[in-house]
Amino acid sequence: MSPDRTAVQAATDAPPPTRHDGKLAAGDVLVIGILMVSTLTVLLNEMLLGVALPTLIVDLGITPTTGQWLTTGYLLTLAILIPATGFLMRKFHLRTIFIGSMSLFTVGTAIAAAAPGFGVLFTGRIIQAVGTAALMPLLMATTMRLVPPHRRGRVMALVTGLTAVAPAFGPAVSGLVISQLSWRWLFILVVPVALAGLALGAARLRNITTPEPVTPDVLSLVLSALAFGALVYGLSSIGESTSGHAPVPPYLPIVLGLVALAGFVRRQSVLQRSDNAFLDMRIFRTGAFTVPLLVMLVVALVGFGATMVLPLVLTNVVGLTTFEIGLFLVPGGILIALVSVLGGRVYDRYGPRPLAVPGSVIWTGSLWFLSRVDDSTGVPALLAAYLVMSASQALMWAPMTTAALSSLGAELYPHGSAAFTTAQQLAGAAGGAVLISAYTIGAHAQDAGALDLAQSVSAAQAAFTTAAAIGCLAIVGTLCVRKASADPQPPASHTSGATVNAAAPPVPSAARHIDRS
Fold first, then answer.
1. What's the domain range around 62?
2. Distance of CA 432 to the CA centre of its chain
3. What CATH number is associated with residue 62?
4. Cα 177 from Cα 169, distance rounded (Å)
């Protein structure tokens, strides 16, 4: 494409004039709003099948191990595809990625709703995951690009809060639907919401990026699939291995994943010299990015693991039903949203440490309290501990994400957001493996699925003691985090009315000439 045509395209896709009163332009708010609602929809859907698994086992005539693949396969697909989203955001327009992602998600949801058996249902879930993979990194990168540095704390707090709100509301929604309707309605009810988001995005979403002429590297895609897919699978199967039910020893896929990961990193280091990397390794050269990322690994590992162990405690120790567990989790999601909004304002003024340091201490303390649970612990005490854990986790989640991405140049936003989302997926798989393994070992039973009260208490104490010990690492990490310096490059909508490149700093000199003429 010639420079003149590039300039014309930039001018054609240019966003409306930016406001100068410190607020986001209406067009920027619309872009972020559409992406947020759509991302919340797909994340909520991700959490729906856990509560429905017993019903699916009966209706479809499958084993629990087979049924678990509806979630495991979904997570594996995300782990394989998310590292490539940085490349996709350079190759295609924002609008193209959004429409493609939501279309695939909607088709997958419709297939799952009409599935006559497990095979078709599994296929629908995989298609859903393909559509989901790009949305969260796309939302994070777009927000960093559009929002000026002095407002990023508030906006990114809302964005990152989505990943915590969805797991809290998903089980409650699923429990309510399953108690009244068939499991198919978990998908049927999502279809019109997804279609509405797709239609709104197709009609109102504007392009804010200019694609680059990059070409896909097949070897990178293969290594990424092997590395992240094998790691997630291996980590997820550790819990099964401790009870002797894993089909493959977990160390085999983990070793394969690590070898493939080393090859992937080496390949990206070579490709980034020609600016053609799937995941640019330069993001890891600065401590301002890697330290918050490491803290987030700890928070995600323990956070996701705790959400798997806590329902077991509520069921086996205090005797709550599935629907009651769903209701138990809802206040945590609401509190996370409130704390994130309030914390975002503090971040914009004072940086991450006033939020993250006390948050990590309180969070670890709440985990330690849960490690002391016994048969005399009541629901109010568990709810209070869960709410404290949720609120303090929110004090770390958004500040760590914002601090890390703010330390990067605009050309690295897509790679940074892809790396963060991939790390969360890996940490989530590892967290479930580590804490469920601790739960199983702590039960001192041959069959961890059928425990008496004493064994359940011992299992819960072992799991949350492990969580609290790991949580101490977050305290150390938050003490080393600093607020990134102000971004020297303005957001997309603040650059003389021209669009920016999807992965490179804006240099629209010809477009500026058109604007002035």
1. 25-485
2. 15
3. 1.20.1250.20
4. 12
Q: What stretch of H or E contains 157?
A: helix 152-180
d(CA 418, CA 67): 29
Q: Which two tokens stand for residue 324?
A: 């009651």
Compute the distance between CA of residue 466 and CA of residue 301 in angstroms, rounded to an integer.
Answer: 11
180 falls within a domain: yes
Backbone angles phi, psi at 456, to 5 degrees: -65, -40
Place of tokens 């995941």: 279
Q: List, in order, residues 6 or more apart from 516 with CB less than 8 Å away.
A: none
**Mind listing the pLDDT tens digit for each residue in 284-311?**
888 889 999 999 999 988 988 888 788 8
Task: With cut-offs at 50, 70 and 90, classify the pLDDT of residue 516.
Answer: very low
In a domain, 10, yes or no: no
**What is the distance between the terminal CA atoms of the chain, rounded to a whole angstrom?**
22
CA angle, 275 then 278 then 280, to 5°: 60
For 393, phi and psi rounded to 5 degrees?
Answer: -65, -40
Instruction: With beta carbons less than 8 A apart as the criterion, state whether 147 and 330 touch.
Output: no
Inter-residue contact 417 to 366 (CB < 8 Å) = no
For the segment 439-498, what is each residue's pLDDT rounded down to a tens digit? Answer: 878 877 665 556 778 888 888 899 999 999 999 999 999 999 877 665 444 444 333 333
State the DSSP code for 491. -
The beta-carbon contacts of 112-120 under 8 Å, at least 24 apart in sequence, are: 112/187, 113/184, 113/187, 113/188, 113/191, 114/184, 115/184, 117/60, 118/60, 118/62, 118/66, 118/67
Query: Is 512 within a domain?
Result: no
DSSP-derived letter for residue 508 is -
Question: Are the C-beta atoms of residues 39 and 139 closer than 8 Å to each other?
Answer: yes
Q: Structural domain tally of the chain? A: 1
As a whole number of angstroms, the distance between CA 222 and CA 241 comes to 27
pLDDT at 277 (0 to 100): 79
User: How many angstroms separate the CA atoms of 287 and 479, rounded?
Assistant: 13
Cβ neighbour number for residue 202 with a 10 Å cutoff: 13
- 2 falls within a domain: no
Give the closest residue to 173 by CA, choosing from 68, 325, 352: 325
Report CA-CA distances (Å) from 356 to 168, 316, 337, 474.
21, 33, 16, 9
pTM: 0.74
Q: Is the dihedral of CA 69, 75, 79, 82 positive or negative?
A: positive
